[in-house]
Amino acid sequence: MSVLSLFSAKINGGDGFDSPAPIVDLPGWTVFKQQQTEIYVITHNLGLCDPDRDMHVVVTPMSPHCIAVVESVDENSFRVSTWRTNEAPMQSDFMFIAKLAI
């Protein structure tokens, strides 16, 4: 039988701009915004063996006319991108829920 854990947080659009920033209420988790793009890397250090099966992530933007997508889930992180509906990068706060089943 697998163990189920849920993780969730709100990420502010400017969080982690200069360097990885801790995520409130998730000890050991950080967010790092990659350069001037609207690509955010959330690091969790869970050491997943099969990331695509072990963790499912849903993200929701908190700005109108914005799209947020989980681009990848890796062993110790996942990547989120945000952009306007016209495909231009857009800074936006977003929330995520990650379900871990191992």
**Average pLDDT metric:** 91
Largest sheet: 5 strands, antiparallel
The Rg value, from CA coordinates, equals 13 Å
Please report the total strand number as a whole number: 8
* Low-pLDDT regions: none
> What's the order of the H and E elements?
EEEEHEEEE
Strands ordered across the widest β-sheet: 2-3-4-7-6
Structural class: mainly beta
Q: State the helix count.
A: 1
Strand content: over 45%
User: What is the terminal-to-terminal distance?
Assistant: 9 Å
How does this structure look, described?
The relative contact order is 0.30. It is globular and about 40 Å long. Helices cover 4% and strands 49% of the residues. The chain is mostly beta strands and 102 residues long. The model has no long low-confidence stretch (mean pLDDT 91). The protein is built from 1 helix and 8 strands. A 5-stranded antiparallel beta sheet has the order 2-3-4-7-6, with no helix packed on it. A hairpin with a 3-residue loop joins strand 6 and strand 7 (77-84).
Key features of this structure:
single chain; five-stranded antiparallel sheet; three-stranded antiparallel sheet
Note the topology.
Elements (H helix, E strand, L loop, with lengths): L3 E8 L9 E2 L7 E4 L5 E5 L7 H4 E7 L4 E8 L3 E8 L9 E8 L1
Antiparallel strand pairs: 1-8, 2-3, 3-4, 4-7, 5-8, 6-7
